[in-house]
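User: My notes are a mess, but here's the protein and adenosine-5'-triphosphate's SMILES. Can you give me a structure?
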Amino acid sequence: MIEINDLHKRYGDKTALDGVTFSVRPGEMFGFVGANGAGKTTTMRILMGVLTADSGSVLRDGRPLTFEDRRRFGYMPEERGLYQKMRVAEQVEYFGRLSGLTAGGARKATGDLLEQLSLTERANDTVDALSLGNQQRVQLAVALVHTPEVLVLDEPFSGLDPLAVDALAEVLAARCEAGVPVLFSSHQLDLVERLCHSVGIISAGRMTATGAVEELRDREGRGTLRVVVRGAAPGWAASLPGEVVEKGDEVLVTGVEDDGQEILHLAVRAGSVEHFGWQRPTLTEIFREAVA
Ligand SMILES: Nc1ncnc2c1ncn2[C@@H]1O[C@H](COP(=O)(O)OP(=O)(O)OP(=O)(O)O)[C@@H](O)[C@H]1O
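Assistant: No problem, the inputs look usable. Here's the predicted complex:
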């Protein structure tokens, strides 16, 4: 288990982290989300030992991380770091060797990863001849080549087309199922909702919500009541309790405190009720609420 405890970090007068705490268990995929400048990269850099925190700690299974621990981690930094003139396969193998793989092991792992990330045909191209999305795939291969025990990825999905997103998601899910804790940051909340077991929302250097995606959705109460009434007089919903948004026959009501039966009665009286149901909040809605 990776535990991040009460991290504080200032850059001069600027407070970047103000008590960041969360943990990622083995086999857990953790989505780290927050607005630009919220503190995600700073937290991941401290986790990887690239930056030092002013206070707080990063533990693995209850003890402070060492250089050797981090060597067995897979890290994709925000500032991508590939040798532009080196060929793709050569490069991934090289990083594999740097992380301690044998020549044969690095070659085999590179071949497998290039295959999984649909890069086999580009194996002999230099990196600067690749599109940005393909460079990103190579960067991921570099982070994964030594079969890391922990994965820390700073916006691994940004700039990828939907097929590449799926390929990467599959690779990460397989590592996760093998027991690897996976932490990644992203602004693509639909993706985080789809892939992650849990999320941490950071806002101005503080965690404003952390937990399983489903738990966070439940915590928000019942969510939004969606009612569709055909043939109702316009404005029938104006006096309903809660906040009402009308779009044609569809009415969305938030802030309803009870089970909504009164609203159902009023809808039945107003016209022909085609739909009446609760919509749980999406991660995007939870995010907006958490950073408001
Ligand atoms: N080297 C630095 N010097 C001064 N301020 C910095 C430095 N690095 C980051 N900051 C500031 O610290 C805060 C947190 O930045 P950080 O890069 O961790 O955010 P982030 O959540 O990763 O943002 P983004 O989503 O835009 O990548 C921001 O206000 C940023 O401007």
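The chain has a mean pLDDT of 91.
User: Great, I'll file this with my notes.
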